[in-house]
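Instructor's aside before we start: the two examples that follow are unrelated to each other. I chose them only because their records fit on one page, so don't look for a connection. First example below.
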Amino acid sequence: MQVAKYKNIYQITMLPKIFPINCFVIEQEDSLIVIDMGVKNFTKKVADIAEATKKTVTHLLLTHAHGDHTAGVNDFRTIFPDAQIGISERDQLLLDGDFSLKPDEVRTKINGGFPKITVHTDFTLHHGQTIGSLTVAATPGHTPGSVSFVDNISNAVIAGDAFQTQGGLAVSRTLKIKFPFPKIATWDYQTSINSAKRILAYKPKILCVGHGDMLIDPLEAMADAIELAERNMRNR
């Protein structure tokens, strides 16, 4: 387990060399907001940050429903019982075990692993909603209800699996041989590309992802990753 800090963002990483899974703590003026909780061991590091900063954890926000982003939620609730836990309304259905597609969604199977236990949340997230310094951005593709969070303190985007940096920066579903798992777990490529463009439009100074290191000044690399993804789509 390792912890990296840049500006007001803490990145906690499980298995950084083998299969990195990230959790983020976004420091506010008087509180802490946590993003993603894929393993229960994250809770101790979050508690350490709370103790060091003397700030209360008020929220846990989930980028999407896959188990490597949600499997530690119930343990988090045990340690932080007063924190409010949120996920998009669409991916709440996946947590509830409903994998049916909506009439307006691409008729592609929803992929990836989901928790085998009931994961309890408190509220649903919606595009444009603000929670502290964070604004929710709908960025479907990896899952139908994936969201990202735009931080107006650091001008970072915490993008979940809309991008990966492990194995090389890539839009979700672009194959990276050194870390192919986001591709395998992605629902729809074109939707992922559209969401990657939405994230790029925010012009983030920091890109934070579910798998891999934070990327500083990422715009050129993000544009290149989107161009590659679009080329892949054209060549299908």
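Example two begins here.
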Amino acid sequence: MSKTLENLKEAFAGESQANRKYLAFAHKAEQEKMPYAARIFRAAADAETIHAHAHLRAMKGIGTTEENLKEAISGEVFEFTEMYPGMIKDAAAEGEKSAERSMDLANKAEQVHAEMFKKALAEPGKEAPKVFVCQVCGHIAEDHAPDTCPICGAKGHVYKEID
């Protein structure tokens, strides 16, 4: 792998993490009634997304929709079969209950994500149903939000409809 490709991968990861971190910071600023800080965090998060997408394009990391769906399936399967199980075990061994729960919920949601990508791969041009995401654990539901999340048990009102 060339040094430039290594650098692009590192930059992509850094920009992607900054985006997510700044959105979390914006949410906290909103909770603390600090609208200016919240808006600046959201603006910076958007800018970081622009950077990340540019780096991904430079890496030629965006293929056809079929290729992208296959890559997404592979990534999700890796997460719930290899990555998260060991991490959950480590957190449990260290008594880190919050981390263990966070990773366990994500692990369960990743399984659902993989299945959703598989469905999209089988019928990529299908009319899109309504899609809802649990804002507690990341579970995805089609057509309507369930009354209770099957992964974390949250009430249906925490689901957000995705365009």
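The radius of gyration is 18 Å.
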